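pls design
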């Protein structure tokens, strides 16, 4: 090969320096694009989550039309204290036959939003946020039977013994005021909090609880945002700054020290914040503790 041809071959290739420059540029572009892609992915999950809640809200309205105007609720308590699944705010969908304290008395029944699963919202996927950081559909949905409520024999049931939970906190009848018709969607009443009239409007929201262990630590969207479903089936997304739409770690610390009332007080305030957020901001909500 002549010297002229050799020089031509050398010019047709890449030098090591040129390759390193190209690789560096690609790495730089990836480092720039990755955060944007992560934000876009998180935003898309937030939108899907919002859509899920909207469809659940529509399902609640249809359920009320078929049930004397009442929102879905859990089974009536069979114990003489108010620990029944029909009153507490919960993300529980299914009561197994040996898991929770409540299910000891109300076994093998759908509860809360789970009541919709066999009526107006038959798609189980809708009860799970795609940005559920704590447990996901793969772990929880096998605990929920495909048969109808009360069709599973508890005595012989081993497949659906565990309680099943979804991603959304559902208020059921928790903290309804005395001026409300119990569980009537059109008459949920209002509270007077610190001299401010706060109508009951919020039905469900992303669960954001910063507990001390796996059982009580549960967040959607890393606890940074919260979608809130209102009784007209509209859904609004709020930034969850200072955990205004969640239960903070300090609440569970107080409960761990014997002050169980701290959780109930925090839940009451959370619901007031969510109610006040309708047409306003949860950060401007009055503080319920000032009335006590």
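designed seq:
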């Amino acid at each position: 090969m002549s010297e002229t041809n050799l020089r031509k071959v050398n010019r047709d290739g890449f030098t090591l320096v040129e390759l390193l420059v190209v690789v560096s540029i690609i790495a730089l572009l990836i480092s720039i694009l990755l955060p944007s892609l992560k934000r876009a992915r998180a935003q898309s999950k937030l939108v899907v989550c919002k859509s899920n809640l909207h469809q659940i809200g529509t399902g609640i309205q249809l359920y009320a039309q078929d049930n004397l105007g009442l929102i879905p609720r859990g089974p009536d308590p069979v114990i003489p204290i108010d620990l029944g699944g029909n009153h507490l705010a919960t993300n529980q969908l299914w009561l197994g036959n040996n898991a929770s304290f409540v299910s000891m008395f109300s076994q093998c029944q759908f509860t809360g939003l789970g009541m919709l699963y066999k009526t107006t919202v038959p798609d189980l996927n809708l009860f799970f946020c795609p940005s559920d950081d704590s447990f996901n559909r793969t772990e929880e949905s096998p605990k929920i039977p495909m048969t109808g409520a009360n069709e599973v024999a508890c005595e012989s049931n081993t497949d659906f013994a565990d309680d099943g939970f979804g991603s959304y906190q559902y208020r059921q009848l928790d903290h309804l005021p005395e001026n409300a018709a119990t569980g009537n969607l059109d008459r949920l009443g209002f509270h007077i909090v610190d001299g401010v009239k706060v109508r009951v409007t919020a039905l469900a929201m992303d669960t954001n609880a910063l507990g001390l262990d796996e059982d009580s630590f549960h967040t959607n969207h890393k606890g940074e945002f919260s979608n809130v479903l209102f009784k007209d089936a509209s859904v609004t997304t709020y930034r969850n700054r200072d955990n205004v739409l969640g239960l903070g770690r300090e609440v569970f610390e107080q409960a761990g020290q014997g002050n169980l009332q701290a959780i109930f007080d925090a839940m009451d305030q959370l619901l007031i914040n969510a109610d006040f957020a309708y047409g306003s901001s949860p950060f401007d909500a009055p503080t319920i503790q000032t009335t006590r």
